[in-house]
Amino acid sequence: MGRQPWRWPTRKPGTPSVSSTRPCTPGLSAERASGIVDVTKGDHSVSFIQDNHQVTVHGYHAGPGYDLASGVGTVNAALFVPELVAQATGAGSDR
After folding, report:
1. Residue 87: CB atoms within 10 Å
2. CA-to-CA distance for 14 and 93, rounded, in angstroms?
3. pTM score, whole prediction
4. What sections of the chain are H helices per DSSP?
């Protein structure tokens, strides 16, 4: 028997998907949650060889706050996940 193709795991009915957390992320960013780490240096340029010539596609540069290179930044999962759960469930707020 050959190798089976990889498939996304299925989730149980009624279990929230990752996409259901998207409305929470801007709020966490606005609150400057410690789980969102601002990327302030670098860019997302890429270089590669094509027809024996190096080609560089210049990307956007990162800076403080929101930018097109990294959006609001990257996450520190150990801090971000509990903050996301609290935001999604309304825990720790007066909602």
Report:
1. 21
2. 24
3. 0.49
4. 25-30, 77-89
